[in-house]
């Protein structure tokens, strides 16, 4: 049998879907980061043919820069196009990347396979589980395949993850710890944490993620033994994990808790660094007046403040590992009759998206999209150009509020870890240097992050799903997006300095796309990820045709 045929396990329906998702993610990464920039792609009718380690691979693609695939990938062998499986594709990718970097990456294949197996396990678990009745939480738990441009989007370490995964519709009670009062590290409003139970005299309650406690077991033995920490057992109520895995929603208070997890999810180990704990509170103070002004200019703009954190002052490892950031929940900020929906669910398809939204998007995609772009893009651009604030508006950091008829009427921005202040635009006097430096980006780096998250990660993915396989509709959506952005410049940005980056985008300059394959292959930190240029769907050629 040909070595590049599909893996045998794909006869199982869950495994087959997982294989398809993993193949698609790795091929999209290869196309975006290697084949297209290297000029190794040829269009032939409805197909693109690319080369991986000298082997021709053929795919059918729609969705513009979102690179959605129609049907399975094939490779050319003995003069015939044959189905291509994940393991052989990984081997080809490794063979070619090994030639470009010394030492290779012995973890890579295992991570890609682990991602595939995780998706299969998620699908099996979802078939048995009951989704949450809360429509917002249903959208948070809908991202089964994960990041479409990451080589191993669902790879997670350990065996316990299904018990805490949003995609499996998990719910769990946090473990309640008591921290000796003289060792409490906290800042801001942490009242939501006190509702998880009473601690003994001389102690302060600290909810903890059960998975994280297992990961920190060795480091916690001493503090438990000598009384610096006490284990008070399971908390009084269950919380619900959201799309980031480590951030949970507490129905009891309506707040969210962002735990640390010493687990690699996509490119990052998801712990709350000490400067991120303090930075969240600092940014909440500074951004409150910014979002007030954004909401006046663009009604429907919302955000989720992070007013406080709590941890234990037991050395950096445990300070970070036990740190919990309190975040406002979306139902507290959305207007009456408005339902928040995770943008990632809108990009992924229909799962977790309210019926009214699906019906409206299908019935009038162009008008729906026009309203969507204004709600999401205008405040992001204004935050950058007018206020010197970089909002990380990718599809997991934006909730879109819909009215009862399915129209987008609000945009809710969250997760201050990725929010940055443009250097030179803000006075950080008095903020400790170790906190201030990670809060800041220079203007060029900030714009790359804004442009990637907003245009490539967010709008391109939602547009591709809205258009489906209809290329004519996709072109119409991008025409509307361009008109909206031009209206933003005319109505809101006239007279603002430093608009040149947006002007270049409207002139058709390539957009920056994050190079997740490259950073994962190099085993580098996520902050080391570079960008590759991708075609700009807003571009109009000399004859007025959209590219």
List the defining traits of the structure above:
Transferase(Phosphotransferase), domain 1, six-stranded antiparallel β-sheet, 547 residues, 26 strands
User: What is the count of distinct domains?
Assistant: 3
Instruction: Describe the largest sheet.
Output: 6 strands, antiparallel
> What's the mean pLDDT score?
93
CATH architecture of the largest domain: Orthogonal Bundle
Q: Can you tell me the overall shape?
A: globular
State which percent range the strand residues make up: 15-25%
**Count the strands?**
26
Number of helices: 17
CATH top level assignment of the largest domain: Mainly Alpha
Q: Helix/strand/pairing class, anyone?
A: alpha+beta
> What oligomeric state do the depicted chains represent?
single chain
Low-confidence stretches: 1-6
Spatial separation of the terminal alpha carbons: 42 Å
Q: What is the CATH topology classification name of the largest domain?
A: Transferase(Phosphotransferase), domain 1
Explain briefly what this protein structure is:
The chain has 547 residues and is α+β, with helices and mostly antiparallel strands. The chain has three domains: 8-140, TATA-Binding Protein (2-Layer Sandwich), CATH 3.30.310; 172-333, no CATH class; 335-534, Transferase(Phosphotransferase), domain 1, CATH 1.10.510.40. It has 17 helices and 26 strands.
3D structure, described in words:
It is a single chain. The chain is of the alpha+beta class and 547 residues long. It has three domains: 8-140, TATA-Binding Protein; 172-333, no CATH class; 335-534, Transferase(Phosphotransferase), domain 1, CATH 1.10.510. The protein contains 17 helices and 26 strands. The strands form seven sheets. Strands 1, 2, 3, 4, 5 and 6 form a six-stranded antiparallel beta sheet that branches. Strands 8-17-18-13-12-11 form a six-stranded antiparallel beta sheet. The chain has a four-stranded mixed beta sheet with strand order 16-22-21-19. A hairpin with a 5-residue loop joins strand 3 and strand 4 (68-69). Helix 1 (13-35) crosses helix 3. The longest helix has 25 residues, at 443-467. It is globular and about 75 Å long. 50% of the residues are buried. Mean pLDDT is 93; it is low at 1-6.
